[in-house]
From TrEMBL:
This is Uncharacterized protein. It comes from the Bacteria.
Length: 55
C-alpha cells in the first residue's frame, strides 16, 4: 500500500538521539507508548485465544 501524503523527516537530537544510539549499539530497539499498547493488546489476544482453545 502506498502512502499518498507528504512526510518530512526531522533530525533526531538530544535524549532521543542518545537512546537511539544506545539501541543501535546494543542491538535493541525503541518504541513509543502507542506501540507498546498495541503490542500488549496483540499478545493478550494471543494468550486469551490459546487459553480458550485448551478448554
Amino acid at each position: 500500500m502506498k502512502y499518498s501524503g507528504d512526510t518530512v523527516s526531522k533530525p533526531v537530537t538530544g535524549r532521543e538521539a542518545e537512546a537511539l544510539s544506545q539501541a543501535i549499539k546494543t542491538g535493541g530497539y525503541l518504541a513509543n507508548e502507542q506501540a507498546w499498547a498495541t503490542i500488549h493488546r496483540i499478545t493478550n489476544r494471543i494468550k486469551k485465544h490459546k487459553s480458550d482453545s485448551r478448554k
